[in-house]
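[stage:ingest] chain + small molecule (2-phosphoglycolic acid)
[stage:ingest] validated
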Amino acid sequence: MRDQIVAGNWKMNNDQHETQTLLTELKNHNKPENVRVMVAPAFTQLSQSVSLLADDAITVAAQNMNAAASGAYTGEVSSSMLKGVGVKTVILGHSERRSLYHENNASLADKVNSALEAEMEIIFCFGEQLEERKSNRHFDVVKAQLSEALFSLPTSAWSQIVLAYEPVWAIGTGETASPAQAQEMHAFIRKLIQDQYNETLAQEVAILYGGSVKPGNAQEIFSMEDVDGGLIGGASLNANDFMAIVNAF
Ligand code: PGA
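[stage:predict] done
[stage:export] tokens:
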């Protein structure tokens, strides 16, 4: 059976005090055994979060990393720095990284390779813009994002990869893809992996949905056959909302 995963992408929210408060609240909730729960705080709060969650089932992910091992990259953080503070998972390719910081399929392929070499788990984000969906190009866009960044990888690399389909028009907008739209795209993604690799691998890869997932819509989205969980932005900043989503399977 595939992993069921709910990951909270905190983005540039939660300073040291807020992190302490939110993680303490999250620790007080019971966690279902069949769901992997992660939070992705800012770089400055990773070490604190790993320590606070040492005795909890929630694990810590980073929101980004640089492809290089070290060197003259002002403001950047490497995989070994993340691993050094106990972080073993990294989110790559979030649409905000793509649009605001010019990440693209080629630069993301480098980051993916670097994270794989460091034996990190990757939550790889991708998804179409509103105009691309309106002009019925969403399947082509998603296919290009996956094939350019991931489809040169050997089959063995995929045990370290979780996919997160996040239609850009649904991120932070309150507008969610309908469960049917999410299922349609997730099934398409699984078929792409089957065609590129094989059916066993296609059935094993966890595919998360992201974009305005809330306590009120999580259950319906997670009930779709090819949806294995969610990448949660806004609602992950509130402990009760986030745990309601975690318990929505
Ligand atoms: P949202 O963000 O849940 O606030 O829409 C999702 C994301 O950016 O991963």
